[in-house]
Structures are given as C-alpha cells and as structure tokens.
C-alpha cells in the first residue's frame, strides 16, 4: 500500500531527516533543510534465495572498456569508458564541459551511437558549437528536453551506447516534486538514468554545474551514486585540467590537461613547462621554481610570495592555490630554523598560471620563496627544488625525484636542490638535508 510521508533534505549535502533541523547534523550547514512529500510503498513481496557464485567462476570481459581518441580523457578515466558505468563531470559554467563532451562524442561516434540530451541549449546552439569544432553530426543524435519520462523513453527506444545529460540540474520528472534541481528530482532522475544505462550496457555522462565553493551545485548525493566523478577546472586562462576525485574503475591520481583554443580543446602533449613565466633577467625576490607532480606527471611551477607589514593586529595568510595551513606550517619552520620572523607580516602566496598544488614536494620551493620575499634577496637564476619539510627543518624524500630532475634538465635548469642524490643527469643535483643548508645555496 502506498503511504505519503514527509521527509526533510539538506540542500547542501543531501542528508535525509524525518524532522526539520536548524543545522544539518551531517554537514553542519544552517537553515538548509527543505520539506518534501514522498510516497513509500510497503509491499509484502516474497524473497527468493539467490545463489551466490564462486569468485573463480567470475569472468572479466575485456570488451567492457573502450577507448575514446582523446588520450587525456582515457587516462583520467583509468583506460577508457566502461560499458554500464556512469560518470559525473562538474565544473564552473563556461569552463568547457559541453565542448569536452561533444568532442568525446565525436571521438567515439564511428563505432558507437551517441545520444546528447540537452536541457541547457537549443539544437541550434549545439549545432553551432559542433560547426565551430568541425564535428559532423552522423552518429550523434541530439535531444533537447528536460522532461525525464520523455528522455527515458527515447533512451529505451534508441538504445544509444553513450548518453550525455547536459546538465543534471535541468532534469525534471513528474514523479519527484516540481522543482527542477531539487534533491528529490536529482536523486530520482539520476538513479533511474543510472539503472537504465546499466540495463542497456551504455555509458552515461552527467554534466553538473559547480558553485564557486567548488561543490557540485545541489546535493552531493549524485556523487555517491555514480562510478566516477570528474572535475573540469581552469588555471591559466587557456589551460583546463580534468581531475578524477572518485573512480571505481581506475586510480584517482591521473589528470588530463587541455588548452581551450579557437577550435575546441586541444590535448597538451608536454605540459611540464606551461606554467612557467619567461623572463629576460633573473627572478625578482619572493619567487621560486619547484618541480611538482600532477597525477603522475611532473609539472614545473613558479611560487610567488609577497610579505608585507601586517595590516591588522595579527598577521594573516592569503593563499588560495596552496593550502593556508601548509603556508603557515612552512613559515613556522622558517622562523624556528631559518632565523627570520613572519609574526608581524601578512603573507600572500600565489602560483603562476593559477594551478592549485597539494603535493608535499612544494614545501621546499615554498620555503625558499618565503625566505626570499622576507629578506628581499632574489634566488639565483637556474635553481629549482623539490622536497617535503619536517617540523624539525629536515628535508624529506619525495616520490619520483629522478623524473622531476629529468624534467628540470629538459627545461634548461642548472641546479636542483633535492632531498637525495640523483645519478645520470647533467644537472647539478645538490643533496640538501635541512632548510638551513638549502637557504645557504640559493642566495
Ligand atoms: P562550454 O563548453 O559551453 O562550457 P560549459 O558547458 O562548461 O558551460 O564552453 C564555454 C566557453 O568555451 C565559451 O565561452 C567559448 C569557449 N570556446 C572556445 O574558446 N573554443 C571553442 O571551440 C568552443 C566550442 C568554446
Ligand atoms: Mg554547457
């Protein structure tokens, strides 16, 4: 028998509660609960025994994965698209999500039927984009609709191999209330689409807009439902980074790098130097070059630090590309072991090209940039570094040092400050054990 029940959902994280709450117990957001009427059925169906099978009897079919022609995309997905899987791709409006998906559609349309469902744009707008990208239509079908039941019917009838939904925030089902983009709508439409995709062994891409804070607009519930979650992000104006934050079918270490050009997204074959700035003369004070890892690739970055007298009574750190806690920790290590003070200073940190770096290897180049800014002495030209800092001021070993050194050598650097020795390189690799000896080598 069907029963109507009232439930409350947090619009921030999708948490479900039977009573209204002022503060979400799951994510801590205030006033985020909205009321929804749901119909629950309690059928007394008989449960049959389903026989389990031995692990040895399970055969993995290779044909379940297929590649696109876009290497960067395949790499991020863990080797290509999986049949029956669902992928959520989030990014700010205008970043190039629709462009990327249309290019993916183009790259597989020869052997696979594509259905591009758009609730965001008209068929004309999509056609204009395709023309700009030099994509011809055969093999790609377009359905401009937001009505969920109509969309499901088309999928059942046309049985495409790749389904693209642009975007999940526009879907609306008769079964799940009347606010498009609400938790109920998202939960219902996405779960049904995932189920349908599995049934016909297709691959499903959901596009989702991301808010400024970096959260996929609407609840996080969709992230939990899908197999893979990708974020499309930008750094320097043209450069786009595709990251995987969840992947049931591969590692989440890989990133895909593209450049947004006149004719769409172009893969960046050798991204190692794209974030470096070319200068006629030497580095100004406060700038240091580091070799960092993005996924498994080495990328050289320029860390910029500015330290100025504190404007308030306490010193503050302004840093959105490097974690503020890391900056604070490295500054404290320098105070203790480098003999300089930051307590009356505001610290601004930036990375050229706007790339965000989380890897521990940037501790050392960050410390050197902080030191150079505070003392107003520039770092000598041609020096690059990598290393993690311990609270005791020691420089600790980091992964893939040989590859970092090799990339720096290729990019024309002369001296590499490294936590360990590296053989077989023409670069002058100086093994530095603590922050004090590193400082002694840069000025
Ligand atoms: P789009 O894919 O529409 O972004 P999203 O779906 O994430 O909102 O791309 C938006 C921007 O990309 C738009 O401002 C124009 C630019 N662009 C190019 O520079 N080159 C191109 O070939 C295309 C198609 C778009
Ligand atoms: Mg779009």
Mean pLDDT level: 89
CATH architecture of the largest domain: 3-Layer(aba) Sandwich
Going by CATH, the homologous superfamily of the largest domain would be: P-loop containing nucleotide triphosphate hydrolases
Q: Strand order across the biggest sheet?
A: 8-7-9-10-6-11-12-13-14
How many domains comprise the coordinates?
3
Tell me the fraction of residues in β-strands, as a range: 25-35%
Radius of gyration: 26 Å
CATH topology of the largest domain: Rossmann fold
Helix count from the secondary structure assignment = 10
Total number of strands = 23
Given as residue ranges, the uncertain stretches (5+ residues, pLDDT < 50) are: none
Bound molecules: thymidine-5'-diphosphate, magnesium ion
CATH class call of the largest domain: Alpha Beta
N-C termini distance = 79 Å
Structural class: alpha/beta
How would you describe this protein?
By secondary structure, the chain is α/β, with parallel strands linked by helices. The chain folds into three domains: 2-41; 67-269, P-loop containing nucleotide triphosphate hydrolases (Rossmann fold, 3-Layer(aba) Sandwich), CATH 3.40.50; 287-442, Ribosomal Protein S5, domain 2 (2-Layer Sandwich). It is 24% helix and 28% strand. The chain is built from ten helices and 23 strands. The chain has helices at residues 71-76, 97-108, 123-132, 148-158, 183-199, 221-225, 324-337, 363-375, 401-410, 435-442, and strands spanning 2-10, 16-17, 33-41, 65-66, 81-82, 86-91, 114-118, 140-144, 162-166, 203-209, 228-234, 239-247, 255-261, 264-267, 287-294, 297-309, 317-319, 345-351, 383-385, 388-389, 395-396, 415-418, 428-431. A nine-stranded mixed beta sheet has the order 8-7-9-10-6-11-12-13-14, sandwiched between helices. A four-stranded mixed beta sheet has the order 15-16-18-17. A hairpin with a 4-residue loop joins strand 11 and strand 12. Helix 7 (324-337) crosses helix 8 (363-375) and helix 8 (363-375) packs across helix 10 (435-442). The model has no long low-confidence stretch (mean pLDDT 89). The protein binds thymidine-5'-diphosphate (TYD) and magnesium ion. Thymidine-5'-diphosphate is lined by residues 91, 93-99, 129, 132-133, 260, 262-264. Pfam families: ATPase, ChlI, Zn_ribbon_LapB. Residues 346-443 are annotated as: Lon-protease-like.
């Amino acid at each position: 028998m069907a029963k109507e029940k009232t439930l409350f959902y947090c619009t921030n994280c999708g948490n479900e509660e039977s009573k209204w709450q002022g503060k979400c117990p799951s994510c801590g957001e205030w006033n985020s609960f909205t009321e929804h009427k749901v119909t629950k059925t309690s059928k007394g169906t008989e449960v049959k025994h389903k026989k389990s099978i031995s692990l040895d009897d399970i055969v993995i079919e290779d044909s379940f994965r297929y590649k696109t022609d876009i290497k960067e995309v395949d790499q991020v997905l863990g080797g290509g698209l999986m049949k029956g899987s669902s992928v959520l791709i989030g990014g700010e409006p205008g970043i190039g999500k629709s462009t990327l998906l249309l290019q993916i559609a183009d790259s597989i349309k020869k052997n696979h039927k594509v259905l591009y469902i758009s609730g965001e744009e008209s068929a004309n707008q999509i056609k204009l984009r395709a023309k700009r990208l030099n994509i011809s239509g055969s093999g790609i079908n377009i359905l401009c609709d937001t009505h969920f039941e109509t969309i499901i019917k088309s999928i059942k009838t046309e049985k495409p191999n790749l389904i693209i939904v642009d975007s999940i925030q526009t879907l609306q089902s008769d079964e799940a209330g009347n606010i498009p983009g609400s938790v109920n709508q998202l939960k219902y439409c996405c779960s049904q689409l995932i189920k349908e995709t599995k049934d016909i062994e297709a691959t499903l891409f959901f596009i989702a807009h991301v808010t400024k804070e970096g959260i996929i607009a609407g609840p996080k519930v969709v992230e939990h439902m899908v197999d893979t979650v990708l974020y499309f992000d930008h750094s320097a104006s043209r450069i786009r980074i595709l990251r995987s934050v969840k992947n049931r079918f591969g590692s989440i270490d890989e990133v895909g790098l593209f450049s947004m050009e006149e004719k769409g997204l172009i893969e960046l074959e050798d991204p190692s130097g794209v974030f470096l700035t070319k200068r006629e003369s030497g580095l100004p004070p406060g700038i240091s070059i580091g070799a960092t890892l993005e996924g498994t690739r080495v990328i050289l970055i320029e860390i910029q630090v500015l330290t100025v007298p504190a404007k308030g009574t306490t010193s503050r750190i302004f840093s959105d590309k490097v974690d503020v806690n890391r900056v604070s920790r490295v500054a404290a290590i320098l105070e203790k072991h480098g003999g300089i003070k930051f307590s009356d200073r505001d610290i601004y940190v930036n990375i050229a090209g706007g790339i965000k770096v989380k890897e521990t290897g940037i501790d050392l180049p960050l410390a050197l940039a902080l030191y150079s800014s505070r003392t107003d002495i520039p770092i000598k030209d041609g020096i690059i570094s990598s290393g993690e800092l311990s609270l005791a001021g020691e420089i600790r070993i980091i992964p893939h040092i040989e590859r970092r050194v090799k990339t720096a050598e290729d990019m024309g650097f002369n001296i590499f400050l490294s936590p360990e020795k590296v053989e077989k390189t023409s670069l002058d690799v100086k093994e530095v054990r603590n922050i004090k000896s590193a400082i002694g080598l840069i000025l």
